[in-house]
């Protein structure tokens, strides 16, 4: 594998953003009204890239893995996010400028404060150490720790005013569902709950009750970010593609692990991070064998994600393992696929083993048992506690308290039953209930153990979740594919090129008449019609611009191939490859087929074989 | 064209819904919590159908017409919907049960009241007429008309309580954007604004300023329906696919009209509706020539929509023209594509000429000129009004009122300027401004006309909008494709079949081993791997069920083809077609290619040619 650089070399963000704006890859939404922070529109090139990526995601994951894809709603009733814990815990901590009322995200504000300190040329070595540590730790601080830092350094607001005490701010957008206005709903901040709540229906309807299986979903999520920034990286509305793989917690081996065990990846384990070392290249097979990755299923999805990102054209990818104190309390193991951008390494895909947390929450929250059934290979003997209550005697003894007594006994743990049973051996036991005090006796209540042959068990599945931030992946690939073509003369040195893979390119091919002549129009139209029938996206440029200018225009849209039409009269057209600018002469009748092969999703033809088959035409540069 | 039936014959909604539930085509969202009215999840079969439809929509419209697709946000700041009129006008009228507080949509409640009356066997002929008319008119009543009906018939709530006065209820979901909580946003109830606000960027960036061109967008929209009902037909969150075609209002001919002029459609014109007549079959060429459809561009999109729906497998489609009093005040002409369902004819696609309304609203709302430029073939002489203000004299005469005077004069219409100019000929004119009263004289203000040669003009484009309700189209096609297969014995007569086109089918092919034998597994896996590489969605069923049962299982998922694996040892497999249940023997090496050809998006191979090429195997029934 190629080594990972520290940063994108030669990347000029001003020029990059200028190209993105000029060709409308993306831009602030509601532009005529001055835009809205954190809301972005994708223009035609990036919208097409997104459709290409999602289509490939469906092939790579849903089709290849036989997943059950669902389409779930953004609007979500409150009870779902109460059960999942989002209503109480999906917060960032913010502080308020006590004069202007402006709100600031506390951890990011402290990070910026550290960055400013670290830029001071007169900083002492001790302070470098202090502020680097503070910078790295701020994101995991709680409210009180943040308050302590603000007090210690007497931080003021950007306007120089006093700051409020830090307080939690819930990132979910809320609204009211229904005309009466008393039912609160939230816009989902992730897709997980929508898939997980369909667990039973998916298992029953499509899957003939077989475990393991995976649900998948593509859709939008919403977070009311306090400080949206960094172009498409931290926004308030974004597209996710998520998988929830349901698996027996005691059987996390993966049937297809052998197919991917030799896939290499840049692994940045906890240990390497703590030792301040760089990521190491290893195979996923070794990572699982050496217990660096918790289990085969998690490893399988790391490998499949690596393959997906590589096919999309991501060049610089590393997988960072979460620290133990960084993971949610229920998570078993978690790895982020990070892509290198000019903003640093950006978390684009999270791959987490969430254990049985979600299904347990929603079983409790909804009162429905969200479990799967495991049949044992051989029946096993199981000892179970029997709670026997003499109904007639109990009714007589407890009267109106009877129901409360029964509930109390059924709610006791196994240990508590054993203890109570022992007490009852020595006489009556008094217990206090909300409805009054009663006396239990062994004539009324007995606890016994029974041995039974059991053929299977119900269990709550673990969930392994790969979650793709589609906008982040797209943006990172766009940055990584960007470069400037310099010609021999040293002039025209601002010709931007996006070296997007044919899979991702917004259009696969441009049809470019060498000059504006009506005689060339039928050929252009017939080529276009043929490509449309083949489903190959394309664009034409029949303007009066010079051919070099036309190439430059499509290079900066990432179009990988051009077909140039001329008057040679040999029944051929010129086919040009974007990155090398090399050209070959191809018969008109063959050219659409060649382009189709070059742009196939799986096993595309490579350009070298095209150069080998057809005569060269000299570079277009 | 086939004639249109009055209703879907032989359709049994209970059985249909049972199949949809059992195979999880769709279901109420948040099922374990009892569901939320108006919010539905699509399960795997319908989710795949939706992806297929949207992918074909992109090919049929975006690619074939070279449209500029954008991806815009659901969250929208308030100012956008103030300018577009949605904040004041996007309402339904509702009434409240004065005791229980329940809210009821007034027009639908009156419709239901009429339906109940019309079911009364003792109803008089006069009342039949009265309640039929009231039923058809209720939807267009305003608040006061609805109040009058409620009073006239002393309508009570479903619980028998008094109803409140009717009042408007805005259907947009609102939320707060940003941490400060003082910026109101709405979830968009349609996609139009997001596309239209990108008009300038699209024209400048992708389109080299050429008109006409179209923007397109696929995404979710949200309406807080008072009374969600009828499965996927009236829901609170739904997917739209919209096109906004920007065109010079004086040039609505369409360059490709000739390609589609012979397309036939069921046209239900205003005149036919008013005369209580059925839709008539005509060609779109005739409809435009006879001025039944307002212009070629609108007609072009009607024809393209007809072709799209037919390719998706819609059997019963009619185009209903809006009445003049039914259209928005700014609309020039509007046609709805309606599909027949068990709920009656359902509006699935709206195709409207919205004139220059939207861009005009947003030019005013944002203060940005959202116009296009037209260069004339020949320069023309244009007489323009000049408003000359003597600045020095004005400053002296008006002092602090000066700015207000200048604004006043610039805001006068041409007619007002002419009139004022005439008055000024006869002496000073006193005008009253918010800032005070001033006297104008001809020494300070003059109006003159100037003749100028002009090479072009700026104009605000008209917008022609085809808007597809994706969930409604999907649901209608699902109903129209549903039937029950009856076998010779009269038993098993509840075998549901969805005759979905290969284009729409959730999976194209099922791979079915004839029996459970490990020897058949390698063949099954190799077929599956080959299909995955070709991007052909498929499913396998290696359960122990009988082959007839396996066919039934995939028939009720709409899978058009089955490959059955057996032990014949002739290197062949059996290929079965769903609707006819006919079977042929095809060599293993050829079968994936045959399936690929049968399922091509454009010009698919037909089954008859497969039957002609390969030996028959007898029907699977």
TrEMBL record, chains A, B:
Keywords annotated in UniProt: Aminoacyl-tRNA synthetase, ATP-binding, Ligase, Nucleotide-binding, Protein biosynthesis
Molecular function (Gene Ontology), one example: ATP binding
EC numbers, comma separated: 6.1.1.14
Residue ranges of every copy of the Aminoacyl-transfer RNA synthetases class-II family profile domain listed in the record: 172-506
Keyword Nucleotidyltransferase set for record: no
PROSITE patterns registered for this protein in UniProt: AA_TRNA_LIGASE_II
Domain of life: Eukaryota
GO CC aspect terms: mitochondrion
This protein's name: glycine--tRNA ligase
Organism lineage string: Eukaryota, Discoba, Euglenozoa, Kinetoplastea, Metakinetoplastina
């Amino acid at each position: 594998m190629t080594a990972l650089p520290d940063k994108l070399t030669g990347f000029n963000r001003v020029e990059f953003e200028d190209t993105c704006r000029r060709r409308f890859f993306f831009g602030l939404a509601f532009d005529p009204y001055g835009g809205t922070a954190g809301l972005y529109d994708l223009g035609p090139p990036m919208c097409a890239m997104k459709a290409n990526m999602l289509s490939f995601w469906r092939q790579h994951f849903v089709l290849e893995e036989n997943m059950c894809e669902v389409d779930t709603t953004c609007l979500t009733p409150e009870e779902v996010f109460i059960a999942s814990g989002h209503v109480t815990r999906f917060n960032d901590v913010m502080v308020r400028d006590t004069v202007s009322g402006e709100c600031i995200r506390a951890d990011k504000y402290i990070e910026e404060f550290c960055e400013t300190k670290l830029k001071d040329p007169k900083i002492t070595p001790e302070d470098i150490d202090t502020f680097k540590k503070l910078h790295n730790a701020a994101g995991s601080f709680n409210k009180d720790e943040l308050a302590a830092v603000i007090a210690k350094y007497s931080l003021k607001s950007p306007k120089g005013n006093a700051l409020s005490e830090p307080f939690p701010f819930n990132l979910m957008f809320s609204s009211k569902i229904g005309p009466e206005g008393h039912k609160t709903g939230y816009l989902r901040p992730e897709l997980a709950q929508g898939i997980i709540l369909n667990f039973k229906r998916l298992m029953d309807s499509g899957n003939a009750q077989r475990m393991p299986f995976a649900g998948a979903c593509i859709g939008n999520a919403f977070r009311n970010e306090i400080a949206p920034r960094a172009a498409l990286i931290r926004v308030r509305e974004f597209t996710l593609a998520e998988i929830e793989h349901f698996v027996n917690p005691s059987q996390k081996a993966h049937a297809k692990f052998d197919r991917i065990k030799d896939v290499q990846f840049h692994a940045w384990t906890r240990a390497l991070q703590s030792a301040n070392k760089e990521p190491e290249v290893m195979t996923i097979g070794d990572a699982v064998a050496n217990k660096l990755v918790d289990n085969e299923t998690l490893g399988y999805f790391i490998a499949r994600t690596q393959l997906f990102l590589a096919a999309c054209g991501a060049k610089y990818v590393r997988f960072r393992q979460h620290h133990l104190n960084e993971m949610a309390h229920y998570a078993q193991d978690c790895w982020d696929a990070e892509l290198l951008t000019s903003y640093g390494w950006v978390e684009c895909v999270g791959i987490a083993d969430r254990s049985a947390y979600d299904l347990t929450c929603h079983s409790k929250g909804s009162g429905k048992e969200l479990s799967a059934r495991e049949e044992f290979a051989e029946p096993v003997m199981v000892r179970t506690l029997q709670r026997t209550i003499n109904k007639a005697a109990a009714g007589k003894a407890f009267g109106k308290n009877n129901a409360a007594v029964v509930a109390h006994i059924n709610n006791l743990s196994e240990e508590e039953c054993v203890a109570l049973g022992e007490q009852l051996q020595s006489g009556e036991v008094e217990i206090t209930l909300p409805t009054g005090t009663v006396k239990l006796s062994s004539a009324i209540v007995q606890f016994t153990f029974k041995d039974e042959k059991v053929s299977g068990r119900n269990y709550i599945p673990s969930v392994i979740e790969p979650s793709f931030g589609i906008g982040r992946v797209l943006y990172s690939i766009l940055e990584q594919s960007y470069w400037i073509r310099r010609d021999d003369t040293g002039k025209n040195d601002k010709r931007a090129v996006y070296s997007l893979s044919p899979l991702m390119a917004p259009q696969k091919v441009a049809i470019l008449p060498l000059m504006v002549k009506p005689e060339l129009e039928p050929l252009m139209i017939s080529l276009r019609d043929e490509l449309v029938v083949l489903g190959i996206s394309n664009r034409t440029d029949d303007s009066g611009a010079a051919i070099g200018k036309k190439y430059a225009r499509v290079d900066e849209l990432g179009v990988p191939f051009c077909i140039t039409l001329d008057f040679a009269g040999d029944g051929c057209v010129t086919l040009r490859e974007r990155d090398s600018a090399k050209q070959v002469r191809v018969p008109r009748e063959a050219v659409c087929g060649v382009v189709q092969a070059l742009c196939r999703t799986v096993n595309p033809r490579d350009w070298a074989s095209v150069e080998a088959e057809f005569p060269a035409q000299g570079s277009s540069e």
